[in-house]
Design brief:
The complex is a heterodimer of chains A (234) and B (481). Chain A has a single domain, classed as NagB/RpiA/CoA transferase-like (Rossmann fold, 3-Layer(aba) Sandwich). In chain A, 31% of the residues lie in helices and 22% in strands. Chain A starts with 11 loop residues before the first helix and ends with a strand. In chain B, the strands form 3 sheets. Chain B has a 6-stranded parallel beta sheet, sandwiched between helices. In chain B, strands 8-5-6-9 form a 4-stranded mixed beta sheet, with helices on both faces. A 3-stranded antiparallel beta sheet of chain B has the order 11-12-13, with no helix packed on it. Chain B contains 22 helices and 13 strands. Among the domains of chain B are: 227 residues, Rossmann fold (3-Layer(aba) Sandwich); 58 residues, no CATH class. In chain B, 51% of the residues are buried. The N and C termini of chain B lie far apart (71 Å). Chain B is elongated. Chain B has 481 residues and is an alpha/beta fold. Classes of the chains: A alpha/beta (234), B alpha/beta (481). At the A-B interface, helix 1, helix 5, helix 6, strand 9 and strand 10 of A face helix 2, helix 3, helix 4, strand 1 and helix 5 of B.
């Protein structure tokens, strides 16, 4: 990390711009704060465990996501093997998050002859980027949350959940334990931002990357994954 | 970017001609509008949700200075750096300086409107640093050197053949194609290399949360996530009104923004950053710099009425429903912003004198106001600007650079208001004007007229004036009874 540019040092230029702007805003006429209208809650709030899983799957599928159901971790691994074989994947990049840890994917990879890599295998950012951009056919992650409201995955990025694994490869496979499904975004954010330090980045992922920028023609796989597959466990 | 708001009428005419030649242009706003309706219907009470969005934005503006201080404090506590810029130039020059100090050969950009407002790309190029737009639409218009046609779909009007020729000329493709998917793939392959090697990323942002010091971006393509994951330095630029009180408020605005923009319940990617990457994380920026841009907004904030224009969350619902935008498209508006949101914002940023035609190119139908999730009353703002502009000698007009109307027009309306306020003057005026008005009438309809009112008759006619006024007739009828 380089030295701070001189503008950033708490010098005269910085403080005067900041203070000038804030003072002008503070001197402006005050206006009243309006009362917030009542809003009925979303219907997902009232759903039970199984209904939440169904709702999540329904919404995720609506965004062209693919959902597999697995009874337990062994079943999930079998399903994953099936996907990897069908897709003809030779190598994958996997996270080391707490959902994936018990699956022991490195051992699974050796058994089915697929190269399983994770960020820890690389010397640094540049080597990791080379592999995750060009060297793998899929990224496999766990999730911290899944939201029934819109079929959304929630990932906290930290040392065990690198950002590019769910973004750079053309296929993203996410393992979602059923107990991690929550009804609405508020349930997620309340726990992610419950106490400091906050995660450096938190993302909501809803379906594959997409665009409609050429004549409104919608298609998937613009810059990120073209497909997202979820294995729902439990 | 060249500002051409003063050529509105001329450019609007060209826009109408082009739209006629290419009828599919008109479908996109309709399509987005229908998707919006369906998207809002997924909320239990869409009207209450929209009203709540308006209340949130209103509160954010009322508490703006306090929220900015709270946001800054928390963002710094998260490890981010905060730079304040008074003007577009200060912001651009700072980012260029930082990019140079970090030795960046090029900058990868996530789609943002504020960086267009501050003219960042031009400034980077001048200093030998290539800016690469990561969003497909922005990439296309950057290569074609076009302004944005629509705030969320900047290249939506560009013909596939034009894009094919562009990509063939750039050697992005080996075989020519007009298939949007294959064109998108060609752009993906080119930009992927840029994302991969990026050392310096610049993004805008949709929301800044005071409570946590977090910045939030919504997008569908992934260009913003790449710009925030791959480079070592991330600069996120915000105008100062982007701040919201709480995370909970941000989630509500997120629901509304996605639905009002494209009808989605949520955009494909929502990323929330609280500081740079932490130790042990292999990707993400080593430094996160948040640039807070004023560029005239603290001046706008002095006027409690004009301030309402700053509620905008850039969803583009007002563009898609606006009967004027639907006819002329985005180029006529002459700068970064277009449609009703541009018509209420740009006069304040550029001056009422340089945008006189913008806030007059409105029928006051109120469609924009009816769809706005931030509760902006565009028509009344445009009326306000018109009133400031004609009375350029009052202090509020000085603030926004109002310019008096031509003396003939001013004289006409002065005479008009004098006449309509005095019945005897009105009545004698009517009897004097009637023969002049009706001179060219045919079967009770006036089809053309010379002089100041000729413009009206280019596309319309006008009923001839009745032989008698209502009062004159009433006198006769009353005598019969």
């Amino acid at each position: 990390m380089g030295k701070d540019p001189e503008h950033l040092v708490k010098g005269r230029i910085l403080l005067s711009a900041r203070n000038e702007i804030l003072e002008r805003l503070k001197a402006a006429p005050k206006k009243e704060i309006p009362v917030r209208p009542f809003m009925p809650p979303l219907k997902e709030v009232a759903l039970g465990r199984d209904e939440l899983a169904d709702r999540f799957a329904e919404m995720f599928t609506a965004e062209t996501g693919i959902v597999y159901r697995a009874k337990n971790n062994d079943h999930a691994l079998e399903t994953l093997t099936g996907i990897v074989k069908r897709e003809g994947l030779k190598s994958v990049m996997v996270s080391t998050d707490e959902v994936l840890a018990p699956l022991n994917l490195p051992a699974w990879g050796i058994k089915i002859d697929v190269k399983v890599m994770s960020p820890g295998d690389f010397k640094g950012r540049d080597d990791f980027k080379d592999a995750v951009f060009d060297g793998v056919g899929a990224g496999i992650t766990g999730v911290d949350f899944a939201v029934a409201e819109s079929g959304t995955l929630g990932l906290i990025h930290d040392r065990d959940q690198a950002r590019l694994i769910s973004l750079a490869p053309i296929l993203h496979i996410a393992i979602v334990p059923v107990e991690r499904i929550v009804p609405v975004y508020e349930s997620v954010v309340a726990s992610v931002f419950e106490k400091e330090p906050f995660p450096s980045q938190f993302v909501f992922i809803t379906g594959p990357s997409m665009t409609g920028d050429i004549r409104g023609h919608l298609f998937k796989g613009m810059h990120g994954p073209r497909r997202v597959i979820v294995i729902l466990v439990g | 970017m060249r500002v051409s708001t003063e050529q509105f009428t001329e450019l609007a005419g060209q826009g109408v001609e082009k739209a006629r030649a290419r009828p599919s242009l008109k479908m996109v706003p309709h399509f987005l509008y229908q998707k919006r309706e369906a998207g809002l219907a997924t909320l239990p009470d869409a009207a209450a949700a929209q009203a709540c969005g308006a209340a949130i934005r209103s509160e954010a503006l009322s508490r703006l200075p306090d929220l900015l201080e709270e946001f800054e404090k928390n963002a710094i506590a998260n490890g981010a750096k905060v730079f304040w810029a008074r003007t577009a130039e200060e912001a651009s020059e700072y980012i260029v300086k930082l990019a140079k100090e970090r030795g960046a050969k090029y900058v990868i950009k996530g789609k943002s409107m504020v960086t267009e407002e501050i003219g960042l790309n031009g400034c980077l190029s001048e200093h030998g640093i290539e800016p690469w737009e990561g969003d497909l639409g922005e990439f296309i218009i950057q290569m074609l050197r076009c302004p944005p046609f629509h705030i969320i779909a900047p290249a939506i009007n560009i013909a596939v053949e034009t894009i094919r020729d562009l990509f063939m000329a750039r050697a992005d493709m080996k075989e020519p194609t007009v298939d949007p998917v294959e064109l998108g793939w060609a752009a993906r392959l080119f930009l992927r290399e840029k994302f991969h090697r990026a050392e310096f990323g610049v993004t805008g942002l949709n929301m800044a949360v005071a409570e946590t010091g977090t910045i939030i971006n919504l997008e569908n393509e992934g260009n913003i996530r790449f710009a925030k994951s791959s480079p070592r330095t991330q600069v996120s630029v915000m105008t100062l009104e982007k701040v919201l009180p709480t995370m909970k408020d941000a989630l509500h605005v997120m629901r509304l923004l996605s639905r009002n923009c494209s009808g989605q319940k949520i955009s494909a990617y929502v990323s929330m950053d609280s500081g740079p990457k932490k130790d042990g994380e292999i990707d993400g920026p080593e430094e996160l710099v948040i640039v807070i841009v004023d560029n005239g907004r603290s001046r706008i904030y002095q006027d409690p009425r004009a301030r309402e224009a700053l509620r905008c969350i850039r969803c583009a619902a007002c563009l898609n429903i606006c009967p004027v935008y639907r006819q002329i498209g985005g180029y006529a508006y002459g700068w970064v912003y277009s449609g009703p949101m541009g018509q209420v914002l740009m006069p304040l940023l550029l001056g009422l004198d340089k945008t006189q035609e913008l806030y007059r190119a409105c029928t006051l139908c109120g469609a924009c106001k009816s769809v706005c999730p931030a509760g902006i009353d565009h028509p009344s703002l445009m009326l306000y600007y018109r009133s400031l502009d004609v009375s350029a000698d009052i202090p509020a007009a000085h603030r926004f650079g109002g310019k008096k109307r031509p003396w003939k027009e001013a004289l006409f309306f002065k005479a008009w208001s004098t006449a309509v306020e005095r019945f005897w003057m009105w009545n004698s005026g009517i009897s004097m004007v009637r023969p002049l008005m009706n001179r060219g009438s045919h079967r009770g309809v006036i089809r053309r007229m010379k002089g100041a009112f000729s413009g009206w008759f280019r596309k319309r006619d006008f009923p001839a004036m009745a032989k008698e006024t209502f009062h004159e007739r009433w006198e006769k009828i009353r005598n019969i009874w």
